[in-house]
Recover the amino acids of this structure.
């Protein structure tokens, strides 16, 4: 069989599926960057610039159980998460990153053609997994400052609506949705996913309401505040009925043993990690004001570990390239509702200083 023959057998709706524009690993950039790869300042994927707790590295170096499958019921892990979140273990399911739960939730609820409401611009994986799971995406645009429009969300609901996604703080805009607004969306009564990947930075959550509503699902991750992005560990808090089904449909060993060790050790070092979160938050505020001083950037207020900026000179793609050449990675967007924008993850203070210096140099170069 030739390539064409194979393509005829592939799901036809996937032939033009564009995939996810993932962040670049520093090692693949070697040829494009002037300086050493080790010097790259990676501000493109909202990772933790301080890394994980040292306890995680030590415990993994000594760990002897890699040849044994993890507990598919996640019992120890769920107990630890109960202690961390204050939500009972029976309401919790963990996964290989919260991305995997987004997929599982869609698989659980969506039949081909069912509608999924998405408050755009937002995290691209909601759209990615909706399409992959035969859902029909219904996009409800946010306003000019990227706040959600609840009246428009309600107006978008039809008999085919199955799910509503809402990230708060939202990625890539950093916008928070106030608790009363989140509750109003939950009160609509349809299954609602509140994605709180950046909860530790914002301090705002609806997790305490999980037991009160049969339709509320709250997602969290260890990728951001705990620096475990590379180990892929996230979790969600759900009504018990939904937990029953998620446990049934998940891949049995979706959370690997290294991630289990990492969570256990991370939670012992919670205070140190939360001090780092506070440093990132302080840096975010400092960077926001430094960015504001640059006339051709419009930064948006953020409650997460990144800042979105509209780019009024160069164009976002060109700016991203100029920064990449100089060893600084940021994310750019140029799509409807997110024209000429870059998202800058908060780095260490000295990294943020270098970024500002380079942005100022770029300005001088273009003036002179
Ligand atoms: C809003 C949001 N949800 C979920 C995720 C995915 O996190 P994880 O690494 O746990 O899959 C991200 C990562 O960037 C995110 O921004």
């Amino acid at each position: 069989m030739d390539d064409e023959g194979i393509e005829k057998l592939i799901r036809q709706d996937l032939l033009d599926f564009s995939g996810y524009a993932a962040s670049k690993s520093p090692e693949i950039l070697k040829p494009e960057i002037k300086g050493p790869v080790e010097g790259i300042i990676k501000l493109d994927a909202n990772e933790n610039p301080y890394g994980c707790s040292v306890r995680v590295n030590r415990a993994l170096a000594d760990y002897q159980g890699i040849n044994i499958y993890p507990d598919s019921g996640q019992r120890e892990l769920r107990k630890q998460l109960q202690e961390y979140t204050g939500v009972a273990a029976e309401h919790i399911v963990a996964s290989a990153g919260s991305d995997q739960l987004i997929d599982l939730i869609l698989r659980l609820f969506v039949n081909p053609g069912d509608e999924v409401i998405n408050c755009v611009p937002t995290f691209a994986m909601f759209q990615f997994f909706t399409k992959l799971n035969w859902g029909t995406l219904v996009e409800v645009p946010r306003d000019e400052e990227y706040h959600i429009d609840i009246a428009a969300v309600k107006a978008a609901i039809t008999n085919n609506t199955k799910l509503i996604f809402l990230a708060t703080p939202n990625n890539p805009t950093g916008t928070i949705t106030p608790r009363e607004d989140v509750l109003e969306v939950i009160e609509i009564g349809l299954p609602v996913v509140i994605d709180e990947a950046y909860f530790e930075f914002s301090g705002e959550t609806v997790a305490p309401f999980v037991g009160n509503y049969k339709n509320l699902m709250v997602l969290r991750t260890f990728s951001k505040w705990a620096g475990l992005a590379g180990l892929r560990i996230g979790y969600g808090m759900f009504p018990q009925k939904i937990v029953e089904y998620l446990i049934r449909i998940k891949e049995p060993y979706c959370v690997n043993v290294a991630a289990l060790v990492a969570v256990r050790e991370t939670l012992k070092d919670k205070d140190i990690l939360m001090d780092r979160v506070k440093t990132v938050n302080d840096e975010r505020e400092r960077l926001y004001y430094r960015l504001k001083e640059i006339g051709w950037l419009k930064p948006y207020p953020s409650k997460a570990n990144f800042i979105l900026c509209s780019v009024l000179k160069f164009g976002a793609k060109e700016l991203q390239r100029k920064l990449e050449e100089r060893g600084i990675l940021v994310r750019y967007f140029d799509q409807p509702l997110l024209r000429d924008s870059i998202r800058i993850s908060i780095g260490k203070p000295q990294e943020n200083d270098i970024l500002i210096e380079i942005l100022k140099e770029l300005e001088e170069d273009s003036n002179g």
